[in-house]
């Protein structure tokens, strides 16, 4: 069969599949319009179809039942409608591009050859008998990603199926037309990859489903490991693989796993929005995505302020010589370690006999149960009971005491004076709840009123007790640094204590204290062990400290974790020690996958940045040609803004749409913004930026994590900015954000990280 013929055959098949899709669409449309009409009808006539009668208590009950029935019917129809809309969306995606791959597979021994077409979702023919397209996540589709033509095998629930692949083909199909078609070996899509990676950076990440690489497929389909650790070079597709893995798991465990069971910790809000399109593009709902800071904030008292990791970073970078910084660095160091976790454990043991601080329970500013009473009750409980269990007992006791108090307060005069607390609806509710009361009997009516008012007054107090607010956690945690003396203290313990005690007095938790504080809180109040989370993904895991990992293991004991990161990009203070990304740091059962090939940047950029990458691991560039990175040395007369403007214009003229000026700190970023703001449209990215648009962006390196741009300019690549070992990872992270162009500017002597790179890896210009 000639190539041309084969292509026309393939196009005929695409046409056939397109027709099948159209037929399915038609069927679904008619079904959908029926359901839609029914939904609209139900909504329009909702109140006509329910019987509303509030005259007698019986009628009220009947009315409620009728409303309930009607709304259940409505939500059932709405669900069906939602499902049909989802199916229609998938069909529309398939119509545009029904598949991207084909393998011809002969199951051994001697079976007939099957043609397997692979796309973003499955599609059956009109008789619902044969697969016209297999979902990329189906077991058989793994052949496509894992093997070149020749012997191959895949796993099913019934065991391994072996055979031979006689053809492996890729397609680029757009609007139902084959635009490209290549037969290929194991590396899927050199041509295809060249095309996609050569395009402009996108403001939202794209799925890589058509060109997943063998190594990445191991991450995506891994089902065995409780802990999967992925160390991957910058741009090696860790984030992409993580998102494809989520989509895979949602397919594999369809019906058992819902988006709420999966949590993704992302490095910053901008990143969250950057990746938010990938799962919907693959036809899946987005999972819960949050930063670790949000996670902590949601669990800590609202009146405590948590410093963000970026504020900590900015402090470390800009105030290195300020008073108190040395103590702060020791503080950060110690509180990032597992040693501090053990120290907290020791303190908690000490609290078993004394020291927990409680709060008074007050009513109308009067103490009704004092903190001393609560403390005495707590410490009188059997000493073998664990602290969190004792807290539960205190809670029950307090609620019982409160009920007694509520009963006695009810008959006091002031209660009736507060009857105005109740509005009309409350009256109605109170009557419904007390239907046996004869409303014509004034004594009974007053009694009911008193009960209702008392209930209302005590409700907020009960709520606070149920939230364990009777324990003064910040004050108790402060005791660790003020009252208590550990058996063995770390060096500089006294200074660490002074600094921490003062912060706690101001209800301020520096980033290094945030996780320890929550750990301590859980130790005395009980952890909200998050059983509903079945899969936890941590991207940029190199930025988590040993303490934070230990904490996460404690609160997610039943959760399967996927950690993805790059030790070369560890930019936060003291995160490298004890980080599981470094081999040898984790003892428990885990699986480790290393990705060494970098897809984001051109070969020239990868070769240049690998020369000063902090780690020694091999980093292989994907073979995409580009320009050498440029080092521009400014002479005395040239202004920085002039050089920036000139280069920005050049970059824009040559089609670069997202250009990032990546600074070391926010402080530097403010300076560059002030310099350019009135000369050219620029946008400054801060911690609060939730989405980014095309254009020229100015940002500190720690906010550029995980994101990529067409071109990157480093406005100050001098030795003053990047000289210490810690600066190496910052410069490496900044430079590896570039897909096509990298420009570094330096007025003074350039950083040695650049100068020590072989001269043929970059070009130098004097301006
Ligand atoms: N198999 C692939 N097919 C197509 N594109 C890919 C593939 N793998 C990675 N890429 C592309 O390479 C770029 C980098 O991927 P990604 O952001 O997932 O890497 P990363 O390892 O998380 O990077 P970093 O650690 O530097 O943030 C993205 O543009 C992604 O689309």
Automatic annotation (TrEMBL):
GO terms for molecular function: helicase activity. Pfam families: UvrD-helicase, UvrD_C_2. InterPro entries: DNA_helicase_UvrD/REP, HelD_bacillota, P-loop_NTPase, UvrD-like_ATP-bd, UvrD-like_helicase_C. Residues 211-602 form the UvrD-like helicase ATP-binding domain. The keyword ATP-binding applies. SUPFAM superfamilies: P-loop containing nucleoside triphosphate hydrolases (SSF52540). ATP binds at residues 232-239. Keywords: ATP-binding, Helicase, Hydrolase, Nucleotide-binding. The keyword Nucleotide-binding applies. Coiled coil: none annotated. This is DNA helicase IV. It comes from Virgibacillus siamensis. The gene is helD.
């Amino acid at each position: 069969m000639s190539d041309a013929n084969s292509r026309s055959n393939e196009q005929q098949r695409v046409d056939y599949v397109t027709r099948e899709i159209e037929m399915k669409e038609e069927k679904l449309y008619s079904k959908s319009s029926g359901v839609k009409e029914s939904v609209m009808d139900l909504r329009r006539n909702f109140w006509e179809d329910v019987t509303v009668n509030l005259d007698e208590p019986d009628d009220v009950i009947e009315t409620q039942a009728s409303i309930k029935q009607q709304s259940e019917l409505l939500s059932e129809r709405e669900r069906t409608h939602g499902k049909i809309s989802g199916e229609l969306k998938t069909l529309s995606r398939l119509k545009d591009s029904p598949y991207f791959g084909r393998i011809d597979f002969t199951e051994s021994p001697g079976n007939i050859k099957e043609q397997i077409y692979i796309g973003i979702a499955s599609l059956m023919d009109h008789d619902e008998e044969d697969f016209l397209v297999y979902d990329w996540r189906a077991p058989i589709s793994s052949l496509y990603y894992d093997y070149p033509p020749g012997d191959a095998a895949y796993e099913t629930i019934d065991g391994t199926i072996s055979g031979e692949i006689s053809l492996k083909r890729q397609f680029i199909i757009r609007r139902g037309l084959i635009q490209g078609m290549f037969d290929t070996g194991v590396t899927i899509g050199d041509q295809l990859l060249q095309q996609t990676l050569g395009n402009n950076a996108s403001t939202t990440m794209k799925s890589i489903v058509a060109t997943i690489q063998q190594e990445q497929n191991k991450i995506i389909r891994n089902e065995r490991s409780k802990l999967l650790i992925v160390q991957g070079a910058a741009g090696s597709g860790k984030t992409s693989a993580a998102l494809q893995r989520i989509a895979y798991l949602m397919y594999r465990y369809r019906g058992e796993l819902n988006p709420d069971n999966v949590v993704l910790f992302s490095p910053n809000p901008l990143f969250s929005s950057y990746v938010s399109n990938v799962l919907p593009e693959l036809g899946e709902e987005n999972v819960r995505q949050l930063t670790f800071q949000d996670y902590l904030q949601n669990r800590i008292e609202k009146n405590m302020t948590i410093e963000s990791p970026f504020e900590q970073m900015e402090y470390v970078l800009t105030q290195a010589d300020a008073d108190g910084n040395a103590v702060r660095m020791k503080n950060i160091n110690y509180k990032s370690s597992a040693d501090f976790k053990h120290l907290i454990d020791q303190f908690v043991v000490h609290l078993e006999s004394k020291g927990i601080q409680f709060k008074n329970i007050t009513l109308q500013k009067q103490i009704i149960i004092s903190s001393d009473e609560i403390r005495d009750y707590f410490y009188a409980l059997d000493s073998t009971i664990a602290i969190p269990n004792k807290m539960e007992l205190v809670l029950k006791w307090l609620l019982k005491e409160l009920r007694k108090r509520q009963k006695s307060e009810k008959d006091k005069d002031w209660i009736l004076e507060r009857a105005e607390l109740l509005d009309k609806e409350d009256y109605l509710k109170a009557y419904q709840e007390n239907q046996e009361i004869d409303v014509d009997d004034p004594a009974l009516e007053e009694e009911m009123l008193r009960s209702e008012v008392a209930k209302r007054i005590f409700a907020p107090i009960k709520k606070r007790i149920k939230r364990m607010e009777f324990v003064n956690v910040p004050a108790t945690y402060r005791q660790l640094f003020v009252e208590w003396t550990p058996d063995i203290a770390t060096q500089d313990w006294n200074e660490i204590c002074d600094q921490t005690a003062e912060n706690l007095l101001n209800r301020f938790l520096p980033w290094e204290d945030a996780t320890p504080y929550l750990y301590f809180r859980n130790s005395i109040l009980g952890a909200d062990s998050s059983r509903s989370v079945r899969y936890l993904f941590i991207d940029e895991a190199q930025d988590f400290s040993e303490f934070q990992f230990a904490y996460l293991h404690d609160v997610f004991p039943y959760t399967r974790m996927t950690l993805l990161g790059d030790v070369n990009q560890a930019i936060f203070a003291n995160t490298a020690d004890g980080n599981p990304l470094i081999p040898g740091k984790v003892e428990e059962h885990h699986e480790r996958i290393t990705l060494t090939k970098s897809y984001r940047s051109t070969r020239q950029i990868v070769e240049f940045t690998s020369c000063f990458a902090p780690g020694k691991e091999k980093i292989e560039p994907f073979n995409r040609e580009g320009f050498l990175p440029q080092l521009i040395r400014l002479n005395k007369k040239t202004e920085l803004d002039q050089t920036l403007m000139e280069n920005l214009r050049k970059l824009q003229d040559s089609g670069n749409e997202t250009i990032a000026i990546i600074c070391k700190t926010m402080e530097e970023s403010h300076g560059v913004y002030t310099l350019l703001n009135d000369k050219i449209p620029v946008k400054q990215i801060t911690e609060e930026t939730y989405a980014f648009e095309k254009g020229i962006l100015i940002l500190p390196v720690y906010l550029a994590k995980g994101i990529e741009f067409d071109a990157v300019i480093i406005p100050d690549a001098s030795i003053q900015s990047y000289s210490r070992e810690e600066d190496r990872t910052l410069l490496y992270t900044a430079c590896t954000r570039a897909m096509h162009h990298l420009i570094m500017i330096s007025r003074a002597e350039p950083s040695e990280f650049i100068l020590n790179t072989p001269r043929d890896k970059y070009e130098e210009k004097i301006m």
